């Protein structure tokens, strides 16, 4: 996180509000920096205590987070087991009980990250008033420490919050405009050499694949196939790349691409397109950056200048095409089918002269990066393999590749190559599971997504 003045202002406001209120609500849209502000303040207090600051208000601070809408009321506050009539503590009650029982001077913040509504938050009213008392359904009352503990709520809005709850809390509004996407991109650029240096030993996919499913659950046949392919695909260690920092000229050039193209693309998507899945600006920019991270990885054969090495002209051209491809998929990949034509026309015009998309039939999504042509665009059709029928293959495991399956497979492989999650969204029966299983099977055999045509 970059220490921008608006962000630091929100951290200070949160600190000051904590000094006068037991409960605080961080209000603002997703991606605005609410979690980052709370984490920064927690770390600052902890660091000041470890540095020996004389103010007793600065103590080692622990943050306990729970999503209240991800569980039932009984799982949140506790309930009686209907079979044994025994009391079972809930997540929130367990966290609060453990914080109260801590005899050290450490401070504890219990964070409720999710919508505030009367279904669950009314039970917190006695906690947020002067009593600082959590009343459980079994009649137990837990007295909270008003000095060492605080309640923190992260919400996008207060549309369904009751006046009784709002009046008991301090408010800190965190608008997304204060942070924007630029601090994220700068932090991402600063860490790009380290991200490119990650090897198999720190690959979370490999760690997951090496483990066994819980004994209490029997995986389905499709899940077993996925885990089998994932284990095989991660058996071969990935080479660890030197984490020597990239040149300042390279970072400035990449940042200039973001500065030039991201805002116009975001504005067009918000004003003239409809999204298939609800998203925020920072999410779209993050997707663009992660794809760029994957396609510029040293294993793809594109040498990036280190330290004071000059940025060659052919590398600049390649980076422009890679960025155009990643911006189209990262920012525009979420638009629905009815918006594709408008987005295609706008993207072609925007990148004209920087990364020219081939004229003719097809949208900007119908072209891939071609490493053999210095990452200029070529058609996905060139990568569609000829169908070979295997008589011994089960019927439902047969996948006939098309342009759509190829480009989705390449995009998935790009995400997996840098250990980033991917979400496939679509109606039932369109081939999501088939594409994933086919990709994992290819990776298990030591190959890639149909030759890795994405770059």
UniProtKB/TrEMBL annotation:
Pfam families noted in UniProt: AAA_6, AAA_7, Dynein_AAA_lid
GO biological process, one term: microtubule-based movement
Boundaries of every Dynein heavy chain AAA 5 extension domain copy: 256-382
GO cellular component, one term: dynein complex
MF GO annotations: ATP binding; dynein intermediate chain binding; dynein light intermediate chain binding
Chain intervals for the UniProt region annotation (Disordered): 202-222
Name this polypeptide is given: Dynein heavy chain AAA 5 extension domain-containing protein
Annotated organism of origin: Chlamydomonas euryale
């Amino acid at each position: 996180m970059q220490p921008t003045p608006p962000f630091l202002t929100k951290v200070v406001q949160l600190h000051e509000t904590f000094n006068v209120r037991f409960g605080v609500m961080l209000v603002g849209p997703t991606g605005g920096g609410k979690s980052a502000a709370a984490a920064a303040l927690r770390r600052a207090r902890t660091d000041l205590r470890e540095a020996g600051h004389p103010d007793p208000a600065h103590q080692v601070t622990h943050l306990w987070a729970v999503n209240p809408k991800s569980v039932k009321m009984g799982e949140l506050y506790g309930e009686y087991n209907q079979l044994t009539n025994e009391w079972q503590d809930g997540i929130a009650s367990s966290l609060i009980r453990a914080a109260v029982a801590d005899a050290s001077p450490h401070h504890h913040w219990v964070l409720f990250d999710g919508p505030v509504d009367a279904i669950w938050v009314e039970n917190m009213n006695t906690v947020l008033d002067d009593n600082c008392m959590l009343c459980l359904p079994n009649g137990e009352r837990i007295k909270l420490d008003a000095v060492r503990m605080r309640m923190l709520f992260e919400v996008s809005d207060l549309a369904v919050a009751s006046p009784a709850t709002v009046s008991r809390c301090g408010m800190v509004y965190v608008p997304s405009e204060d942070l924007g996407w630029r601090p994220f991109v700068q932090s991402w650029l600063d860490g790009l050499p380290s991200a490119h240096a990650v090897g198999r030993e720190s690959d979370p996919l490999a760690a997951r694949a090496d483990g066994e499913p819980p004994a209490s659950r029997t995986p389905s046949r499709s899940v077993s196939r996925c885990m089998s392919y994932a284990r095989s695909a991660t058996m071969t260690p990935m080479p660890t790349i030197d984490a020597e920092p990239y040149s300042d000229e390279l970072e400035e050039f990449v940042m200039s691409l973001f500065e030039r193209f991201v805002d116009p693309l975001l504005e067009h998507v918000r004003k003239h397109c409809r999204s298939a899945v609800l998203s925020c600006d920072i999410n779209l920019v993050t997707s663009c950056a992660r794809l760029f991270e994957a396609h510029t990885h040293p294993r793809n054969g594109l040498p990036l200048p280190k330290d004071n090495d000059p940025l060659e002209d052919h590398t600049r051209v390649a980076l422009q095409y890679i960025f155009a491809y990643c911006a189209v998929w990262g920012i525009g990949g979420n638009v629905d089918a009815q918006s594709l034509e408008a987005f295609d026309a706008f993207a072609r015009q925007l990148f004209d002269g920087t990364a020219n998309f081939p004229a003719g039939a097809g949208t900007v999504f119908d072209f891939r990066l071609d490493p053999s042509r210095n990452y200029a665009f070529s058609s996905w059709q060139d990568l569609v393999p000829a169908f070979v029928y295997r008589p011994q293959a089960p019927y439902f495991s047969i996948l006939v590749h098309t342009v759509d399956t190829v480009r989705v497979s390449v995009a998935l492989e790009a995400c997996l190559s840098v250990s980033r999650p991917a979400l496939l969204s679509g109606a039932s029966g369109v081939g999501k599971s088939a594409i994933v299983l086919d990709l994992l099977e290819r990776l298990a055999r030591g190959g890639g997504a149909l030759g890795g045509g994405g770059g």
